Amino acid sequence: MAAIDFRSDTVAMPSPEMRLAMVEAPLGDDVFGDDPTTNRLMEVAAERMGKQAATFVPSGTMGNLIGIAVNAHSGEELIADADSHVFYYETAGAAAVCGVQIRPVPTEAGVMTPEQVVQAVRPRDDPHQPITAAITFENTHNRHGGIAWPLDVLRAASDTAHAQGLRVHLDGARIFNAAVALGVDASEIAACADTVTFCLSKGLACPVGSIFCGSEESVDEARRWRKRLGGGMRQVGVLAAAGLIALDHMVDRLAEDHSNARTLAEGLGELPGVTCDLSRVQTNLVYFDLEKMSAPEFTDECTKRGLLSDWVGPRRMRFVTHYGIGAQDVQSALKICEDVLSA
Ligand SMILES: Cc1ncc(COP(=O)(O)O)c(C=O)c1O
């Protein structure tokens, strides 16, 4: 029996339709700008984000790194939530590659208030301090449980940042999960930012790729950075073809992943020794805490029974639902968890 894989939505396999499109895609050299499938995907992606232009990048991490590079210069500072992916999991790329210092701001739920934004901006007339050039927001917010920032809260933070003269980058790795959860168009979320990165290879189930979007000027700059980072790919239309299918067919179905996550969270919350904050389970990520067992031990025991998962703290777990998980898998997983906890 195939394992139930809750480690991440990145494990989702491409659909049969994507595989077919990948085989049949007309191709060219995208570094020269003449891959027709990639060019088409960039048009569609920019339109979906309400931006002028877009460029294909290998990963969300590279998209965010480019977002930092085009919005801030070496010696400047970028404000980010202290639990953001950019600060936590991107191997200090901002510092190592761009010479940009991140200022981490602890927040209640990944949502920065206008007051916090203002407080984090350095006074421009003090030569001791770096210039605050930009801010980044994350929606949905991974380490804060996959929550989707309400639009008015995001707008308030973004308007404040712009009023302070900052550029805004959105880590929209899961922007479509946010859009589906909030019942809004992804472009409304992206409108809060000057540049946005979103991932094709997470909930949208593509094998590889993310897209960086912004103004023509930002995307020209992004293409230069992409080349510098070694991310210029040639007949990348084989991957873009899957992206086109994803944007057409994989967005609305994210509601199914959210509903599976909800059922999972409710079921986990009923198990003895498990605490799950249901208010945070708004999309496809389910974080929960174990009272009587360590998270690594729980993970090992689940793995032995065919349930793959990820622990994120000594007693903290994360389960992720995606295209490869059906309603029946959720029930089987709950049974496995119950067995492990009662063994
Ligand atoms: C919120 C967020 N941003 C960015 C990334 C980075 O994406 P990638 O793994 O494609 O580099 C991830 C990956 O899980 C993520 O969760």
Describe this structure in words.
The chain folds into two domains: 11-249, Aspartate Aminotransferase, domain 2, CATH 3.40.640.10; 253-342, Alpha-Beta Complex (Aspartate Aminotransferase, domain 1). 43% of the residues lie in helices and 17% in strands. It is built from 14 helices and 13 strands. It has helices spanning 16-24, 36-49, 60-71, 85-88, 93-98, 114-120, 151-163, 175-182, 186-190, 216-228, 237-249, 254-269, 295-304, 327-342; strands spanning 4-5, 53-57, 77-81, 101-105, 132-138, 167-171, 195-199, 210-214, 274-275, 285-290, 307-308, 310-313, 316-320. Helix 2 (36-49) packs parallel to helix 11 (237-249). Bound molecules: pyridoxal-5'-phosphate. Pyridoxal-5'-phosphate is lined by residues 59-61, 64, 85, 138, 142, 171, 173, 199, 201, 210.
Please give a quick description of this structure.
By secondary structure, this protein is α/β, with parallel strands linked by helices.
Count of all domains: 2
Following the backbone from N to C, one meets helices and strands in this order, namely EHHEHEHHEHEHEHHEEHHHEEHEEEH
Which spans have pLDDT < 50 for at least 5 consecutive residues? none
Gross morphology? globular
- By CATH reckoning, the class of the largest domain would read Alpha Beta
Query: What fraction, in percent, of the residue positions are helical?
Result: 40-55%
CATH topology name of the largest domain, in short, is: Aspartate Aminotransferase, domain 2
Which key features would you list for this structure?
2 domains, 7-stranded mixed beta sheet, 14 helices, 343 residues, single chain, Aspartate Aminotransferase, domain 2, alpha/beta, binds pyridoxal-5'-phosphate, 4-stranded antiparallel beta sheet, 13 strands, Aspartate Aminotransferase, domain 1
